[in-house]
Fold each of these.
Amino acid sequence: MADNNEVIIKCPACGCDMEKIFMPSAGVNIDVCTNGCGGIYFDNREFKAFDEPHENIAPLEELFKDKEFKQVNENETRYCPVCGNAMIKNYADVNKEVLVDECYSCGGKFLDYGEIKKIRSLNSPENKQKSKDVFKELYANVGLELLEEKNRKNTITKKIKYSVRIIFVLLMLILALIFIMLKAFK
Ligand SMILES: [Zn+2]
Ligand SMILES: [Zn+2]
């Protein structure tokens, strides 16, 4: 995992220096705005190790306990503290309720204070299963429609082929009749 271990980065929400917090469960450092807004910056893919309720975030919980943080405007565009690109707001939970800032160029993610807790509770195994079921149903329905569409097309093609054959046979019959009549009247 790419970890910007040495560099102290500035919080994209409030500009304070972020503190490196070691997370033993995943063996990585994450950057936390401990003296400002309580936001957390995750390097590329680090967040995946903490977004489910069974994953250990004890050091963060300890850090956030009984602490007040600076209020920030969550709607503002944030700029990635590692590469400087404007971050894009994206949903980070299966229910699509919590928007986090994502850097499309380095894969970093910034979460405002409290968002990690919300995301973890929303990403419960039951919710994940539910969202999977929705997708399954969706795929099943779409698949069925495609199959029906294909069958419909096949039926139409068959009908056309059948009609062409009948027209051909009729034409041949008419030609034969004309031929016979011409011979008879000679
Ligand atoms: Zn901050
Ligand atoms: Zn970045």
Amino acid sequence: MVLRLISVVILAVIVARVCNFVYVSGFHKPIYKQYPGPCRLVPGVDRGSEDITVSSEGLAFISSGLSSPRFVHDPQRHAEGVKGRILLFDYSHPEKNTTELSIVGNFSNNHFDPHGISLYQNPVTGETRLFVVNHLPDFKDSVEIFRFMEKEKSLYHLKTCQGEHMYSLNDVLAVGPESFYFTNDMFFTQGILRILELYAGMAWGGVGLYDVTDKILLQGMMFANGINMSPDGRLVYVAEFVRNTVNIYKRVPEDNSLIIQKVIYTYTSVDNIEVDKKTGDIWLGCHPALYTTIKHMENTTKPAASQVLRLRLSSNSDPYDKAELRQFFMDGGELISASSVASMYNDAMLIGSVTDRMVYCEIKTI
Ligand SMILES: [Ca+2]
Ligand SMILES: [Ca+2]
């Protein structure tokens, strides 16, 4: 009797997990084409623009060439030997498209597989630093810190940060010249155990902090993905990709700890998060039909659905008691596949993709 009861409970848990993953995969989701205004491809970007972040002056930094077999399973793409690059796009001169930033200093370009990025603009010195998640061989990860040299159009390598708690990095959020939050999307880094962790819906991802040494701050997340913060630094936003949520945390300035305030259900798989520094609006690059993204990662010539949402928090009394979600972009992969990020500056937007192209849109519908 007891054995039978245990078997029923185990079966029920497995069925619930399978049903949840089928739901999250988005087979039932219709994809209606929607553009916020005129949109065009940006020439020179055809091997990914996984993360984009923009400076106060409207310079967008783009990470291109993500190839880690942890995410990209397309043998053709691996055979091509895609090169990791950081590109620059000036919102004041969109007609100039992108420029590749050269990397100088003591850093080997042979092991550059860039993923999530974040900027730190020092309010005292005016220095701009770019923090880049880098996937190294043998499934090891690091965060590379560069100084941006605007005149030379280059990145000067300053430091490689690694730690025992930085094992499955996805995104980074700079909070000081050498300190940052990071997300570990999952616990396992490779192979069948990572696949099982994903499909069984295990909540083993989380958020950590690097400040001289590294430590874990938050656990229990289902694929922790993008991380960013409000312009005043009081709130931190984290995307739980498989749970379909954006979590809002209060940041304690004394020790950088994070206290959960609200969970926003998005009903789509949110990848990276960008924040408009002027308005505080939160821009989400999303995978609305996740099964198409999974197929696209196995064969990058197959189209995958793309979506951009804006999350606006507002209230007279409390900055997070009202949340409005609005869609600005949706595409079945005709223009761009597997959108992972949307960056906004004035009335224009760049949409990036894990392995595909990059799109520039003028916003006419706000
Ligand atoms: Ca980022
Ligand atoms: Ca990401």
